[in-house]
Amino acid sequence: MFDQALRINPNYANAYNNKGMRLDRFSGVVLKNLGKFSESIIMYDQVLRINPNDANAYKNKGMKLKLFLRRCTSQFRRT
Questions:
Q1: Could you count the other beta carbons within 10 Å of the beta carbon of residue 60?
Q2: Cα-based distances in Å from 10 to 26, 38, 67, 76, 79
Q3: Nearest to 18 by CA among 37, 3, 7
Q4: How far apart are CA 55 and CA 24, in angstroms?
Q5: Distance between CA atoms of 3 and 69, rounded to whole angstroms?
Q6: Distance CA 21, CA 56 (A)
Q7: Each residue of 7-17: b (16+ CB within 10 Å) or e?
Q8: Rounded to an integer, what distance in angstroms lies between the CA atom of residue 76 and that of residue 55?
Q9: Against a cut of 0.85, is the pTM above it?
Q10: Element housing 65 (H / E)
Q11: Residue-by-residue pLDDT tens, the chain, 79 positions
């Protein structure tokens, strides 16, 4: 759905933001799903390239990075 919208309009910032949020839902175990973490960050970065004033993209990216740091820290402490 988001990919189709982006094919039609590659500058549709909301599609990148929503795709990033969708990827966030599937980011379970850090090491197993590292690609999903980085892919969602890439989506938020794309939003910010299109619209550097998009507060939701900054918020979503910040929350994602915070979650990533927490999960990495908790896995590091377990080993």
A1: 21
A2: 23, 19, 28, 38, 42
A3: 3
A4: 17
A5: 28
A6: 11
A7: eeeeebbbbbb
A8: 31
A9: no
A10: helix 55-78
A11: 788 988 999 998 888 888 887 776 655 444 445 667 788 888 899 999 999 999 999 999 998 889 888 877 876 666 5
Tokens describing residue 46: 């794309």
Rounded Cα distance between 46 and 32, Å, is 24
Name the nearest CA neighbour of 13 among 44, 58, 41, 42: 44
Radius of gyration of the chain (CA): 13
**How many residues does the structure list for the chain?**
79
- Tokens describing residue 59: 């918020």
